[in-house]
Each structure stands twice: as C-alpha cells, then as structure tokens.
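job 3f2a | input accepted
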Amino acid sequence: TYTVAKKELDDLEKWKEEHRPGPVKVVPQKLGGMESEAQARQKQQMMLMQSKYQQKHKREEYVRAKKAAEEAEILKMKAIQREKAERLQVKKKQQEMQRREMFFEDQYYKTNELLNRLDLGLPKSDSCQIAAHGPESTAWTRSHAYKQALQEDENRRLEEMKQEQRRKTELMEFKKKQEEEARTRAHRNEQRSYLQSLFIFCCILRVNNAFLDRLQNKTQHNGNDQPGYSG
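job 3f2a | predicted structure (231 res):
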C-alpha cells in the first residue's frame, strides 16, 4: 500500500513537472495613459475638492430643509392657535350679542309695561287725549324705535367686525411680505456663500498647481544635472 501511494505521488509530481506553464511573454506597454504625474495629481485634487464641496452642500441642504420643516411646523401651530383664538372671540361676540338682545327685549317689555301702567293711572282728560292718538299708534312707535335701536346696534357690530377683518388681512399681508423678504435674503446669502467657496477652491487649486509646477521643474533640473545625461 505504501509503495502504491508513493508511486501515485511520484506520478503526480511528474505530471505537474511536464504540464508546468512556460514563461509569459508580454509586449511592453506604457501605463498611466497620456497624463503626466502633475496632471494626475491635479485631477485627483480637483476630484477630492469637488467631493468635499458636494458633501458640504448636501449637509447645508439637509440643515436648510430641517430648519424649513421646523419653521413650517411652528407656523402651522401658530395658525391653529390663531384660529382657536378667533373662534373663541367670535363665540364671545355671539354670546355678547345674545345678552344684548335679551337685555333690549327685557328692557322693551319693562318699558312697555311701565307705560301701560302710566296710561292706566292718568286722568280722564289725558286718557281721552291719548286715546285720540290711538293705542295702536303708540305701540307702533315703541316697536319702531326698538327695532331701529336694534338695527343701529347690529350695524355698529358689523362695522366693528369689518374693521377687525381688515386689520387681520393687513397683518397677514405684512407677515407674508416679511417672509418673502426673508426668503430673498436667505437666497442671496446662499449665492454669496457659494461664490466664496468657489473662489477659495480656485485659490487653493492655483496654489497647488504652482507648487506642482515648481516641484516638476526642480525634478527635471535635478535629472539634467545627473552625470551621463545626453540632453
């Protein structure tokens, strides 16, 4: 068994030796493309700066979007609170109007009752004189005066509501104008920040290019000074 195993191993080694791959012949080629080392470094630095600028821009966009969402949520809450306050104010006005109507109605009945009592307590001559005018005319005059007072009060309340609505509209227009101006200023600041970043990037790129040019010139000068250089 040992002999058979040893023979198989020898045969395997012999087969490997016979089928060993020969030397690889590759035609020499120039690697790295047509760009020089300085151009490759410059391109790499530009790509790195562009990547950093994109990441910074994305972070700024995220911060702006988050801030805008928070401001929108705050404005929404303010609008809800303002709507609740307006509803409460309208409810209070309606209750006040109901109290006034009840007060005027009660005042009217009390006044009418008092006048009726006075009519019953007058002498006959005065009673005849009032009867000449007629009870229907007196009741109509009272009713007309009461309705006219209610109409004047209603007109006054409507005018107050119109003025309040006008003030609210003017306030909303003023707030809208302020928000538009704030957005315009933010857009201008964003453009100014972008131009400043671009200017800084160009300055850094110019300094790097000048450094690489000096380094390349120095390398070429050192190579020319080496012994055995044929020019």
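job 3f2a | The CA atoms of residues 134 and 183 lie 74 Å apart.
job 3f2a | closed
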